[in-house]
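agent> call fold_tool(seq_1)
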Amino acid sequence: MQVHSHTSDGLAKRNALVLACAQALGGSSPAIVVSLGGLVGQNLAENKELATLPVSLLNLGLALGTIPAAMLMRRAGRRIGYIVGAGVGLLGGCLAALGIASFSFVLFCLGTTIIGMYGSFNQSYRFAATDAASDSFKPRAIAWVMTGGLVAGVLGPQTVIWLRDAVQTAPFSGAFLGQAALALMSMVVVSFLRPVPVGIAPKAGSGRPLSEIVRQPRFIVAAVAGLVSYALMSFLMTAAPMAMVGCGLPIEAAALGIQWHILAMFGPSFFTGRLITRFGKEQVAAAGLFLIALSSAVGLSGIEIAHFWATLILLGIGWNFGFIGATAMVIDCYRPEERTKVQAANDFLVFGSVAAASFSSGKLLNAGGWDTVNWTVFPPVVIALLLLAWQHKARATVPA
């Protein structure tokens, strides 16, 4: 167990604020890709079943980038790693814009994949915020970073609305140039990150084998809760913009729906950490999964703007509780010197499933419609809730 004096939380709070700002900039990238990826895919792909492939590749890039990002940060440190990651995001945005301008679906997909790799650096911000934090501050440090997504929730969709027609000869490419500019700005922000002092930083090359850690029941349950929360969120969010447009609603309504969704994803972060401290990690994660199921129930009730937006808002809140709760559970499963490899393994599992979910979402929407997409949500939620209930009962029976 990592124990710090409360004075060390001054550094943790400073770094959490820096990372929250970086999250505000970097977190806008998925919003831009999700809002436009399927629509651009429909325009560029000959096979319309591949329309959501750019969004799926965003998530595949997230999965593929987790381990290289972890290795780079283990060797060069968090700050250098995040600066390199921002450079990756800059490259991805430029390639995506070039793919649209040159009518190349392959190049556009390459761009969204690289943007996803940028996201693999951004996703570790929540773990980086805990590096110098006391045990009592860790859940709040994670939540602080996630609040940066509130700005991203406005910035990403507004970038789509403001810049989608900036390049008259290549509609939507301007939004991806805007994404590249935001990545460049984040490169400056992360340069203010301070390293963890030697007395707090874990020793390299020690700890248990990864295979032993990931076989722990608590890690398995935490990974499943995070995986289901994130995969189902991506599953519904990927399909929603195309479903809205397919139901005759305007693109602006779809983009604003994603904006409300992202605000709902990160808005609760102001108090999620405190809820975890008061009620427990498993309980908060379970509440999140229940809200995700409720969002699908609303999605099945109608196809007006209000139904779609309510679905996306409930989905965002559910993701926040489920994912932050699961992240806090993962932190319990490793020692300080084991953090890098366990964090990378967890994120690889989560974002690998997210990539599969977003790709299958497009296929299901094309084959069975919006109702089929929503009905698919319930079985994995039930499985994750049963595992959380089992883990809670086991911990109550045999104290850790």
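agent> call fold_tool(seq_2)
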Amino acid sequence: MSFTSGGSVPESRWGDVYLVAGSRAVSVCGDFLAATTLALVLAEGGHGGLAVSGLMLAASLPLALLAPITGRVADRVDSRIVLAVAPLGQSVICLVLAFTSHPVAIMGLVALLACGLAFTQPVLGALLPEMVRPADLPKASGLSQTAGNIGMLVAPALAGVLVGQSGARLPLLLDAASYLALVGAALALRTRRTGRTTAKGALVPWRLRDDRTLTVMVGVLAATIAGVSAISVVEVFFLRDTLGASTTVFGLVAASWTAGMLLGNGIFSQVPPRRITVSALLLVVVGSCVPVVVAAAAPGPFWIIPLWVAGGVCNGGINVFIMVIVAGRTPSAARGRAFASLNASVQGAGMIGLLAAGPLVDRFDPRLLVAVVGTFGLVTALSGLVVVRREPPSDPVMSTSRPPRDSVAT
């Protein structure tokens, strides 16, 4: 099967979508398995919260710093090469990690792992819209997000069991195997993106700031992600100290947001693409912030579970909508740079939230912090909605009338 050069709409390649979704589930599970394992190793080694924070920073910083490079690579280099070479290197790094115990060396190797992720994320983001017709993109995005969420749910529990039964080495070896699975999936994919340049050999021009509506959307998402990252730190003290939750209840609450995301992926993947706009996405962001604001007044920990499920449902919708909107407003030849810019903004904002949360928890009441963070996200999303609604309507770049020329099937 291949894209035609005429005006007919190409058929969606669901086999490729399922292959990407399956490899994403394995890869995300492996990543979270390694992250949880390494955090446990550092904590049990007596290195404290500073070392764990350093580990999280090492896993996030390369995705933000390398975006200008990785986006250009994604748009210039054959997707199959990137998706085969980068995970192969990550697999080798995981093998070394399995036999490393010094905290500084662990952080350095985790940073190298994140460098590989910085290259593969924009490639996968740009590749998915090439696999399906525009009308099928919400469903494809929902499948991919659901697979990732399942990996996120399984990994922490699996890490706890494996570390407790066999130590840290086995989970890290399994993570190395998960990267090899991604290499296999890359070689099996029939859809590929090949680099497209202008007649002078330059990349097709594209800048995020040239699309004001998309820029506002990314800014709101970044602010919201900063708040979510801060909440992930604050909720430990809010649930355990303020609301008196047991460790079991804390685990249930922590899992409820991800469970809501799974539900949201399925619900919002059914929305027709014509209804997926930046305004609609910002409304869903508002929906994800409202439960956080309400949670600040919760009298007990069990009240948080339905609120976190509701917030997670909206979070799942956000993830589905992002794929459709970025693909629709960005030329096919520039989608690697678009997704790299989005990833950089999200990761940078997440780091800011994590860094700010620590000192704030030491100075302010956790209930107050939950209220402030939720209100900040709510006000930011509503402000962005006002700005976007004043923008003139713009037609998406993605078109069903002519297929992209920079993807091929083999």
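agent> summarizing second result for user.
The domain at 14-190 is CATH 1.20.1250.20 (Growth Hormone; Chain: A;). The chain has two domains: 14-190, 208-389.
agent> awaiting next instruction.
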